[in-house]
Specification:
The protein has one domain. With 56 residues, it is mostly helical. The longest helix is centred in the first third of the chain and has 25 residues. Helix content is 80%, strand content 0%.
Length: 56
């Protein structure tokens, strides 16, 4: 039973880490972009949506 709990904990940590990495990679806006462009880029980035799905 302890090994199942440990495996579940490791799985959750790895899933959370993957979500954070996906969102960070998706948030990279082009240099010199204004706020509107940055928001548009983040909302249309598949990596941001992947991160949100992994968190959800």
């Amino acid at each position: 039973m302890k090994s199942l709990a440990l495996a579940l904990a490791v799985f959750c940590v790895l899933l959370s880490s993957a979500a954070q990495i996906a969102m960070k990679r998706g948030m990279g806006a082009p240099a010199g972009a204004d706020v509107g462009t940055t928001y548009a880029h983040a909302l249309t980035s598949p990596m941001v949506w992947l991160g949100l799905v992994l968190y959800g």
